[in-house]
Amino acid sequence: MATTSDIKKGLCIRYNHDIFKIIEFLHVKPGKGPAFVRTKLKSVTSGKVIDNTFSAGHKIEDVRVETRSYQYLYPEGDMYHFMNTEDYNQITLMKDSLDSPDLLKEGEVVTVIFNAEDNSPLSVEMPSHVILEVTHTEPGVKGNTATNATKPATVETGARINVPLFINEGDKIKIDTEKGAYTERIKE
Questions:
Q1: Could you say which DSSP state residue 166 is in?
Q2: Does the keyword Repeat apply (predicted)?
Q3: Residue 187 DSSP symbol
Q4: pTM given for the model
């Protein structure tokens, strides 16, 4: 058993007869009353996100997990196929268990989190940044803005990202997978 002081991003806990992954947390110590931890939990089975508040010192049941490297192979409807990079075994996961499936490029290596008790896959952790090529965007017109203006662009995986006006088709861009936002242009 863990307590609220052990809460950190990415921790998997058992709550309401389901396994949840902590995606955000905030320790709050108000002027009056006891401290508490405000959390945002994502169900690893359904993908549903809920907000929950734990009082300070509350006991939580953490789930022992293992991580393994897998290579993304291809999508098939709502199913995504992955291959273990060590023993080449393949697994199939639902789209809901991925944090940002629209940024997943074939051949990308991701970390799959497994429940250590029954060896079932819980969720997929993307790398912090991915590099994708812009396949379609409107040409940007210089001089018509006073601030950092953006325009929509479609990348090779089909995801739509807002990019600065100077990005053109064929450019490779670095994307933050957590926010799904443009970071920088990659020069070759």
A1: T
A2: no
A3: P
A4: 0.72
Report the C-alpha dihedral over residues 136, 106, 130, 41, rounded to 10 degrees: 110
CA–CA separation, 96 and 20 (whole Å): 13
C-alpha dist (Å) from residue 33 to 6, 56, 177: 21, 11, 38
- Residue 143 has what pLDDT? 62
pLDDT over 70 (residue 145): no
Task: Tell me what percent of the residues of the chain surpass a pLDDT of 90.
Answer: 16
Burial category of 145 from C-beta neighbours within 10 Å (exposed 0-12, middle 13-18, buried 19 and up) = exposed
What would the two tokens of residue 60 be? 């939580």
Rounded (5°) CA angle 13-120-69: 95
**Range 171-175, long-range pairs (CB < 8 A, 24+ positions):** 171/133, 171/134, 172/131, 172/132, 172/133, 172/134, 173/131, 173/132, 173/133, 173/134, 174/129, 174/130, 174/131, 175/103, 175/129, 175/130, 175/131, 175/132
Number of H helices, E strands in the chain: 0, 16
Q: Which of 84, 172, 77, 93 is nearest to 130 (CA)?
A: 172
Q: Cα separation of 95 and 106, whole Å? A: 15
